[in-house]
User: Fold these one by one.
Assistant:
Number 1:
Amino acid sequence: MDCAEILKILPDYTVGALEEHIAAHVRAHLAECESCRRELRALENTGALLGPMPAVDAPRDLWAAIQAQLEPRARRKPAWRVYWKPTVAVAAAAAILIAVLLAWPLMQAPVPLTPDLPVLATAEGTSYAEAQIAGAWDQPLADEASLALAMAVIEPENSGEMIQ
Amino acid sequence: MSTEAAEEKVVAKAQAGDQRAFGTLYSQYGRVIYSIIRHMIGNEETAADLAQETFIRAWRSLPRLQEPKAFGGWLRMIALNLTRDWVRADRPTEPLDGENDEEMARQWADDEAGPADRLRTSEQQRQVTEAVHRLNEDQRLVIVMHHLEGKPVAEIGRELGIPVGTVLSRLARGREALRIKLAPYVEE
Ligand SMILES: [Zn+2]
């Protein structure tokens, strides 16, 4: 490899993105070539210039300030609540009564149970978000609790190797 | 349930209008968003304002977020773009003239680094921030997550839903672009 070829892949070499046999070629060239070594140092200095930043706590009242400015968004309601108006209710009650009377003889016969469908097998046209909400409908706190738990477990192992 | 899956559910609830779920996302991301902005701007008060604006804009745009699992990267991009716009807006450069100079010189008198060093450092920091802001979004995001936040590449790949090889190649191209823009500071 000549200098031009080396310089082209030197940034990838710097961050450890090259396959080992190519990296070996680069190392061999660097051992011989002062000008490419100088370029390597410039790339490494660039990395050193970038950080890390100190992580600092946000002001304590920041969430309160944010929350005060969140416009309410129409939350999706279950269909029965949208249509549950008094006039509709009377008609619905009458319809249910008639249906029960008509269906009474049928209800004496055994009815096969419908198995529960998996949440992620969403029907065509159902958004992913709706599927997620449906999944959590009966356990409103499950997601927060498991997220907090997962965070607690994951937080301490942030100390992976850094590219310099 | 994995962290990612748990977070996706919280994001979906926030998308549907649940402010409490959005509060959970704030407790997860508030600190890092504030830290990034503050690091780039160097001013607590403005950083708090911009962090606040970041979350308010995120709340408004959340229903349009296609991939709930992309929330973290998407939120950082809102913060980075707001920060860039703030930095670039036409405003007087604060402490570089008149009485402020003397004031700063007095504050620095006891420091180990003299005023000249401090001025050079703050100018260097400004140049670094500007160079980062000029990167394309993909490169900017991985550079910030890896170099500023100190996240390992595997974790970045998981969070952004991209292969580690892609993270590395964005880091390499970003590094290459920054090395050229920051030549006076990095060449020996
Ligand atoms: Zn060479």
Note: Residues 3-50 of chain A form one domain.
Number 2:
Amino acid sequence: MNKIPTICPYCGCGCGLYLHVEDGNLTGVSPIRSHPVNKGTLCVKGWNSFEFIQHHERLKYPLIKVNGEFKRASWGEAIALIASKLTGIKRSYRPDSIAIMSSAKCTNEENYLMMKFARAVIGTNNIDHCARLCHSSTVGGLAETFGSGAMTNSISEIVSAKVLFVIGSNTTEQHPMIGMHMLDAVNRGAILIVADPRKTQISDFAHIHLRHRCGTDVVLLDSIMNVIINEGFVDIPFIRRRTENFDAFEKVILRYPPDVAEKITGVSSQDIKKAARIYAIEKRAMLFYSMGITQHITGVDNVHACANLCMLTAHIGQPMTGLNPLRGQNNVQGACDMGALPDVYSGYQKVSESDIKKKFEHLWRRRLPSRPGLTLTEMFDSILDGKIKAMYIMGENPLMSDPDVSHVKEALKKLEFLVVQDIFMSETAEFAHVVLPAATFAEKDGTFTNTERRVQKIRQAIEPVGESMPDWKIICALSKKMGYNMEYRATHEIMEEVALITPSYRGILHHRLDSNFGLQWPCHDLNHQGTPFLHRKKFTKGLGTFIPVDYIPPAEETDKRFPFLLTTGRIYFRYHTATMCQRTSTLEREYPECYAEINPKDADSLGIKGNSMMRVSSRRGSIIVRAQVTDKVPEGTIFIPFHFREASANLLTNPAVDPSAKIPEYKVCAVKIELVESKRDQKD
Amino acid sequence: MSRIAEIYLPSKAKVIDVIEMTPDSKLFMVMPEMPFKYKPGQFVMFSLWGVGEVPISIASTFGVQKHIELCVRRVGHVTSAIHRLKTGDDIGIRGPFGNAFPITNARGKDTLFVAGGVGIAPLRYLINEVIKNKKDFRRIELIYGSRNPSEILFMDDINSWQKKGINVVLTVDRKDKDWRGNTGIVTEHLNKAKVSFKDAHAFICGPSVMIKAVMQDISQLGMYEENIFTTLESHMKCGVGKCGHCYADGKYICIDGPVFSYREIRQYNLNCTP
Amino acid sequence: MNKGMVLEKSKLSYWLRQLRKEMSLIGPMRGENSDIVFKTVENIHEIVLDCPASIPSPKEFLFPQKEKMFRYSKDGVENLRGNKGRLIFGVRSCDISAITLLDRFYGGKFVDDYYMSRRNNTIFISIGCNNPDITCFCIGLGSGPFLSSGFDIQLSDLGDRYLVEIGSKHGLEIIKDFIHLFSRPKKLDYDDQYEAILSSQARFEKRINLENARQKILSGQVNDSFWEVVAQRCFECGGCVYECPLCTCFNVIDRPYSPTDGVRLRVWDTCLFKGFTKMAGNIWPAEKKIMRTKRWYFHKLIYYPEQFGKFGCVGCGRCTITCPGRIDMATIASKIDMGDRRRKGGGG
Ligand SMILES: Cc1cc2nc3c(=O)[nH]c(=O)nc-3n(C[C@H](O)[C@H](O)[C@H](O)COP(=O)(O)OP(=O)(O)OC[C@H]3O[C@@H](n4cnc5c(N)ncnc54)[C@H](O)[C@@H]3O)c2cc1C
Ligand code: SF4
Ligand code: SF4
Ligand code: SF4
Ligand code: FES
């Protein structure tokens, strides 16, 4: 019996856990007690993270589709087929007719290799991953204001903070262990302000709960800043020394006094003032946000507004003081850091800057494209336009996660060639021409970067099941076949290359990650101990920039035909598109089917009772779900989790995207609701 | 080291016949490889390889034939798979588990059976048992409610019981054109029973909502709580008091039950209604 | 039984090395940073004895988180019961007390053959706690820090030597062949053990009176508004159950490898999940969190004593470490005991 320390594969908290191994079988997990994030605890997903690994439905060997049916193939055959197809498509069209989807579930090393594969081997910048769908507004938005799109503080600082302002994050459910630190802080006397239209577990503990209307975050934040300016809580020396563009910003803010905001957001001006004063006065104030801020057509605006608020009060650049986007997936931070994005290489180095491109060309010995590639949301449009002919998807399931699922389905069908590399046969994989079996986190080495920028090692606990292989080995094999030699003996050699070329990861080498649970980037050299909080003394980009933001209503507003607002999200027991959770008995059992939360008043007016089935339709589609009547959602709004294959909420959502980050508006769309009479006798 | 009984290991059994009773319930004739003795009210764990295991009450009468009969209503994952079984298929079976209906104390008294839907199945053996020893009991009555006439189960048995002098009241929620009998739910017909409630024993089985209503009503009609019995359902995984799923308020439904008196149900606050 | 012997510390590793030839040796080893985890001992000198409490509890060796029950195929069913001989070294007293109770739970009318077969092939060498962890409260429950019975072998650390007490046949078995390593105890050894017990008792941070809590619950002094506040803090992680040496619930799942071939597994399950009691037809008997929170506490504080005459808690303190909501047994029982009904029921 052995216990291998590694990192939870689910969320961005990055909890440390041991995988228990006996005779090559996983027999359980337990939390790492000395880990700074989870301190001996885990959430339900972490506790059950062992079950899916040796599940009987795991993909065990490569599959090639012949006459519409998958046939088992050898690795040699599969790799040869992919290499010749991709080479062919690259030649007969151009490199940019191929798109690559990397994965926030995979390691840093794998994401780095994938982006190297896209750029050096294929010759395209068309690489993206699901961060587009959750935090691209953060990456872009914070780059413009602060110069770095990551959590500024560390999780372990939370407990000592005095004010926690949580907006658009259902923390205890989505980032449970961060939620734990928050509750600890509240126990110690911190004041908790939660802004969320829904009642969530964390809002139960809030001293002030601001239930603003979905999609009005900008107004809420602007009016809070309006109060801060009008009541003289602005930190003027900070604004003078550290920031720019204050005047233009102030002009806009003055348009949002609390009484105006009250009308738009539905939050009383009293509460807005109270929240503003509490947040502004206390120095150790941490602002947290998550998908409730980012997944809007105004996602970048929302992020800017958060950043403005921090700068206005000088709540940045100190321990326990800062702006903290909570990243969703276990390695979404890392996938971004590694440059699995269409416009940057690793460490957010721009592909369009010629010295940087030259640097990479030198290292990789290939000419590289300089025009930024397509974002994930644009990729599917381009397939339908005939510009993209082939796609390579690693560990993602866009058919479930993408807004407007039917659109994606059509696109996938149209592809000349699709490769999917995954651990299970996903909905997306069904459409592939070749499916490659990948190894899970328990079957490989590498690193994940959690939401507080902590680069941590994951360690192989068991041999990969069947013939499955770690993603990095697959990429290497394929590159080689396509005539580009990628040779690494182990993942630490890949990390060495990352460190060589990525300033923020320069001091991050595997052997340094063994003690003290990794290092937080930026880590400038081999002696640097990592950076617990960012923007000390100056912002990453120099001066922080105020970016004025005005209110833009959601792309789709309610009207007579579609009178309800739909907002979507995750639930605690499920993760993302549930490919892993569905194979975990406990998690699967908790929510066997999709449901929709609806306010009792709305339910009454529609004749809907708890457990009735209702049809929810938007302009794009319609699904049938079971009603859960609860005051968790305000009147006029319903909530549907997006993890269910049978009733995919993303059939309804609006594919409208933020103009710059291209993040889709998952959080608001207009729907109508009808009661579905059940055929069965209601009595039993 | 002493040999330990393998309580979780199902033994093999064969489906020898399947009878469709109603659109959503089927009666399975199952021949266990290793026959076992059982009592009225007991259940078995019915295993389908690769799908799972569910508790099912034994609907047959011990000693009458070699096989056992199990009446299964299709409601979810495992029961749907069970419904796809055909004659000749192999299944696994463990049991019998649970306590049984206590009939000794009912001797010399009036006996009332109340059944709803598939609830008739677990009572069938008990009714046969009581009829076999008919002279030991006073009046024997059955009130049985179904959703509609076509869903009345075990009509042959009911006819034979009536012939043997039992007073049977049938009722349906929804009648069809041929139905001449009673309509409405069973509680509306309790007063048709000619038992002396103060001194009678009752055995009730059916959907939990019905059970609760009937228990309340007959105790109001004067029957003692400790003389009213029913069988409770709960999520079950082991059947032997280990997995914890059926545990409620200090009692394991699988080993302390599934048969409980109304008194126990109230005393332990056992969850018999959702 | 309880026979005493004395073993010089320098001879411990020799003894263990000999025993390891017969059965696999598991002991407290260094994990990440300051963590201690029980795993197969590769190097005997790396065993860490004076360690903080380990998580998870040693129930994992008798009732693993995931266990294959049997394999089924065309040819019938094959029991996959584990029966490897194991020696588990360095277990704490509270855990031995828990195992004594588990033996009763898994025994009884229906004997859980998976547990029993492992149990019959496992020998525990426990060690009295000279340094209780800050989370420990076995002292109020008689389940530690030193035991007078129930163990196979109990070591008491007396500085340069161990007092070795033999409490079972199994225990005697592993001493018999090495009797030359041990010497007879003198009065001084027992005096020193008593001193160790006294000094350990003085080090306890926590003293929780579960009996008072039980009485208050039974006499109806704890109302639902208290439990409501406790339940509100529950993250539904299941950690308290997974970690607790006395929680025993499991789920059963089938893993088909082909239509005719597969295995049935059992995995730890917890009553803190609402799906634990769900029934077909969309019936959720314990949909509200408060029902599940209460169930956990009532089982341990009320029903366990009814069934076994003992609390369903040995004061190991693991739930204190692992509960993200800070609504662990020690915190809540002392809140009940102290009569704290303030709004902030759980936590801090
Ligand atoms: C003592 C006893 C006797 C029973 N006798 C009969 C009978 O004679 N005929 C009959 O049709 N049904 C009977 N049931 C109910 C039957 O066991 C459930 O309908 C069945 O378990 C549902 O399983 P499922 O997989 O189809 O449902 P799902 O909803 O898919 O349930 C999944 C799992 O949950 C558990 N579960 C869900 N509902 C129940 C439940 N009501 N009882 C126990 N476990 C449940 C099971 O482990 C099941 O595998 C009895 C139940 C009990 C406790
Ligand atoms: S909080 Fe996140 S990282 Fe931690 S155990 Fe849960 S899913 Fe895993
Ligand atoms: S309830 Fe908590 S303290 Fe008590 S035995 Fe269980 S885990 Fe240990
Ligand atoms: S450990 Fe705490 S939070 Fe987790 S299930 Fe138990 S009581 Fe709830
Ligand atoms: S069914 Fe397992 S304890 Fe009752």
Note: The mean pLDDT of chain C is 89.
Number 3:
Amino acid sequence: MTRIEAAFSKSDAPLLIACTVAGDPTYELSLEVVRAIIAAGADILELIIPNTNPVADGPVIRSAHERAIIAGGGVETAFALIRTIRRESQIPISLMTYVNPIIVRGEEQFFRDAADAGADGILVVDMPPEEGASLLRQKRIDPIFIIAPSTSPDRIRMIEALGRGFLYLVSAPGVTGRRTHLPDDLGVRVRRVKELSHLPVAVGFGIGSAETADEAVGAGADAVVVGSAITECILVNPVNPAPGVAEVIGTIRGGMRLN
Amino acid sequence: MKAGRFGPYGGRYAPEILIAALQDLTHSYARFQRDAAAQDELHSLLTRFAGRETPLYACRNLGKETGVTICLKREDLLHGGAHKINNTLGQALLAKMSGKRRLIAETGAGQHGVATAMAGAVLGLEVEVFMGAVDMQRQAPNVSRMELLGATVTPVTTGSATLSDAVDEALRNWAGSADDTHYLIGSCVGPDPFPGIVRDFQCVIGRELYTQSLNQEGRLPDAAVACVGGGSNAIGTFFPLLDQSVRLIGAEAGGRGLDPGNHGASLSCGTAGVLHGAFTSVLQDDEGRISETHSISAGLDYPGVGPEHAYLRDIGRAEYMCVSDAEAVAAFRLLSRTEGIIPALESAHAVAAALRLAEEMDEGSLIAVTLSGRGDKDLATVPGGRV
Ligand SMILES: Cc1ncc(COP(=O)(O)O)c(C=O)c1O
């Protein structure tokens, strides 16, 4: 059992997954952000490898990619960050990346290095299962897949049979970014996925307030992913982002307990 | 070969959010190909609206000193001033028949944006074009044309604010709008099925060239030359000639020099990677970060290339050479003076490549150059006066 699977099986309450771009705004400050995320009690850490063409990201996370790239961030710095955290914490770590860095490093090599560094799962934004044979062969690292609003029931069945750890359900069409409310049909969609799947369902995209966290849990989410709201803390206070990050995690956790 | 692959290249490296749209597009395109009425309508639009067929013109003066005949496939004479309309009419018709009401597109030189705006106007589809802020400046006349044609032009300021960033933004927009919107991609790039669709619509260039060359010159050319940005006018030229003994030569943007950041020569200088949904040859560093690019022509200023070109390069069926900014500008001026034809700066790369080839080919050889567009849009970049 990976750390991710263990986290879900240990807990009856929904989990909080906190996500940040590795190396945003610099390696050192990013390490502080991650430490703040862990200290504030997030259940799973999702680390994003900075990319030059983040086509699935809205303006906030996009700015994080740009800052991290300018600071020299990439695959090596993300792996270094994971190794450092692993010396301090057993928090489950899911790596999120676009596919190109994997292809360039060599697929098997990349997954081996990620597992060696201490990652437990990996979500490749633009590698659907059809292109992901190498990922599906991995034993030490959970392949995590996205379910979109447009993913058909047949496809959900195919994906859930191949994925491990959890399924990442995108709350609404579009790119990452905070929303005031989650769509009304979220509950129906979460229920449909759960009927078709044995995996826990994490809801992401658009959650950045107590209210939206409450809506996601109310819709039946087994976990709530918070991303842009954490990055906004770095935007607002690039010199000392950690306190803001802790506060966001506290707010989201509060919202999750309203149910 | 696996569906959607060209040898090892191509594929569908797209976010899950776009997979259903890409599957739908694959199916609706298969229906479109079988639909005789749709094919007739496209043919009618291409002839009566866009101005096909385009002439194959044997230059009277250009290259004469080498004893080699250079023919120009005059895509510059098409409505809108470039080959782009071959693809936009095809895809817009496909979109309309699949029930879409809106088109989005990226554009670099603005030619694809203009051609999309024209297709949208004539077929009654709303159009939004994403264009890098830098390109909006260097191709300002095309921005006005798009707006006059009823399109919304949305500036993109991320990254280097050029073509690659515009593709990123169009993909982001499509992720939230695919229900009623077709992404009308401008070159043979992107996730499957785009590279094949765009190639098919551009193949009209090579098919006409084949027949015209036989009829007018009594034989096929010894070499066919086209410029390569994403590679659509080149693949449209090459594909119908693949089984013939014709050298196929692509001209890439050599820019200011071949050190990183100064060119757009993805095939000559790139390494294997994924950009915009396809596995292809990409300008990038050793961790897969995409490089900045430069070309004097906005349409060739792109760090990737259509996957089919990477395959043709690997199997040795097509050759790719780099043409510098300076060579392209010289060819731009030369063709204007010697033949009375002002080529697009993109197309001027192909003309320059043909001139280089003519020097080394036997006397009496025949070279066909696809003149992908006209150069009115480039007058601000290359002032008209004497050198
Ligand atoms: C006139 C002209 N030629 C060539 C190109 C490059 O595109 P492609 O390589 O797809 O033909 C462009 C792109 O904007 C163009 O406007």
Note: Chain B has 14 helices and 14 strands.
Number 4:
Amino acid sequence: MRPITFAIILIGLVSLVLILTSTNVFSLLPEQHKFINIDNPSNDIDCVACHSRIQAELDSSVWHGNFSCEDCHRFEGTGISFAEGGSPATSGEEAHAAYTPRCLDCHDSDGATVAGEYAKPARAFCDDNYGCEYSAHRALVMKANESSMSVGENEACLVCHTNYSCELDYTYFEGISYNLSGWSFTSFGDSGTRDYTANWNKSGAKHVFLSLDKIDCTKCHENIYDALVTGTPKVNEDYLTHSPIEIHTSGTGDTDWNTNNPWPFGGPNYHDRYHYIPKADRATGVNSSYCYECHNVNKYANENLADKTTYDLGDVTSDTYSTQVHCAEALWCQTCHGNGKTKVVIDNPEQLNTGHSGTNFVDDVTSDYARTFQGDICMGCHEAAVHPSDAQAICTRCHELGNADVYIESEPCGYATNI
Amino acid sequence: MINLKQMFLIIAVLSAIAVAMTHTVTLFSGQHSWYDLSGSGSNVPCLKCHEDIGDELIAGGVHTSIDCECCHRTSKMVGYAASEAGQAEPGQGAHSASTEECMLCHNGRRMPETNFTHYYLNSSSCLQCHNPVPAILAAAAGGFGLTPDLCDTGTKAAHRSFVLEAMIADDSLMAGANEACIACHTTIKANISFNVSTKAKITVNNVYNDSYSYWAVTEITPTNYIPYTEVKE
């Protein structure tokens, strides 16, 4: 056979083989006819194929990390009918593949069991109307429910409980001024507005749930943190407001108005100040646990048994609504220091009968003035840094006569004059 | 004179062309032998040219015994080329086949509410879609608010906007909601571009007069969108 003949025959054979075996039109979108069998009783369509990032987030989450997507997104406790394959198939109604759950679908008042674990009720927020009015953040939860960004109240849950970041743009008063004469108000007014932005920047991942101790009050309330830690620096003593933690040093040693001064130091009426943090410890000492000292006495008492005894926190708890709130209580100084309360105002034993103990002063402040001003009204004198240096000689002006002329600025500034 | 080396070269080139030209090859092979079109249904063996698709269907877990024509020659909106009882009908919208919506069969609707037509189907194929006739095997794809079932509100469906977007998109890759249905229900590859908010912006105003105050949360808006891509293999 001549090579050319051989070549032609070979070409013919090869072409024939090719034609017979490769008659296929190449599908433009391969596998669009390869349907996934959905006969199994549980979901057979792999959510993670399109949502691998969410799985990765869950893998590093403190809570819910062991759940499958379906545990939450095809949760059966709500009565939603999801699409389900099989013979016969169940048609979906409110949802097909998945729904976006409300956190409260599981964390409602009776909780739920998911993947063999009990989901606890979200205290207070699981109650009608999201619990009592003393439960802080209730307005946030209500607004979240109203807003369309996410289902239900989820926006509120997410910003605190996950790595979803948040920015808070606050507007409130800048300062107040008032005059006191014989422990009675002769004038009161507010001035200016303050815009304050707090940023709690996290990774942004909504499926990374935080352990409870990582929920840091001071991030969203940075103005309060600043008020307690930085305030407005002054030469001798900083203006630090929000809670009476700063005592002016005019005397000597720890027995005077010093930062480590309990009333009277080591003496018979030894009076440790509960919410008092020595200057050196402030930057670290002002943290969520510190906030709970006042804003959730019940929680603080349970977590700090020594303090519970020292400060009689069992009784203080019953002065508060702390057992009825979600995480924090909206309170007043009067909540603990009003007449009849466990920590009713007492005088400094070194200067007996010179303060407002035995009067209705604290209760009157509460009933006459808006809650937002309460702390600053008290701090006008109790932010002891404001002791006017030239008026120190006449302690009696305040301490006996109950006269004061105060201007004090809101957090984070705390700048105050009291002449 | 061609030597052996040159010969292999020619074979190689021709093979390459043959492979690259499978469409043409397909269309021309057997062009002189005609299929008898007079029986009911489509008598053109789709699989001859679309064998890969037949393989996919059989390998899958759904529609394994449904003929190509059931999904590609059943839209009332399309007139297909056909030859019934010796009468030749020219195609109008499509010649042999059209792309159809999954919802043509899965919308849970009955005539005259549907665009489904039995006209071009094989008379013996009834049990592929009915068992028994007229009970419909194709379950209504409920949960997107697209079926006549009054309970099918779809209000909670996480992927509802995926489906609705697939339906309205102008530059539609596929008919109806098919992009969404196929993305989930088949092993097709897909690139999905997400753009998600990583932060909420919350506006909080203190509302007050001398004797009364409260905190009003006036706005919650999502911000800090971050794009990322998921690749479904």
Note: Residues 232 and 238 of chain A are 6 Å apart (CA to CA).
